[in-house]
Amino acid sequence: MAQQQLVRDERSIGDLFTELATETGTLVRQEMALAQAELIYKATKAGKSIGFLAVGGAVAFTAALAITAAVILLLSIWIPAWLSALIVGLAIGISAYFIVTSALADLRTTDPLPRETIETIKEDARWLKNEVS
């Protein structure tokens, strides 16, 4: 039978703590990089929603300018011009309202916190606590 020899780890407690500190530092840097990537992703998503909000406002304004005069003139054939302007203005305002509220709803659902990174940091802290104990 072959004898098995036990290989003894010759590292001291100080060496082990130094290695633990080094690995912990590496882990923290990696977690920070993950948090940064997650925040960039969420900021990009929010930026797109803000862009759509601006475009929606511009579209509503342009539509109001282009259509208002024509519709007011058309309606003024049957009703007074002031009433025509009021009806058209309300219709355009309602359209703009729905565009803006849609974009704001998208912004409200965007969570700015890096939830995944926070959870992994908590897991790392629990692991480190168990390793040191």
Rough shape? Answer: rod-shaped
Low-confidence stretches: none
Q: What does the largest sheet look like?
A: none
Give the mean pLDDT: 82
The first-to-last residue Cα distance is 39 Å
Q: What series of H and E elements makes up the topology?
A: HHH
Radius of gyration: 31 Å
Structural class: mainly alpha
How many beta-strand segments? Answer: 0
How many helices? The count is 3
Strand content: under 5%
The helix content is: over 70%
Please describe the structure with a list of short key phrases separated by commas or semicolons.
mainly alpha; 133 residues; single chain
Structure characterization notes:
By secondary structure, the protein is an all-alpha fold. It is 82% helix and 0% strand. The protein is built from 3 helices and no strands. The protein has helices at residues 13-75, 81-108, 115-132. The longest helix has 63 residues, at 13-75. The mean pLDDT is 82.
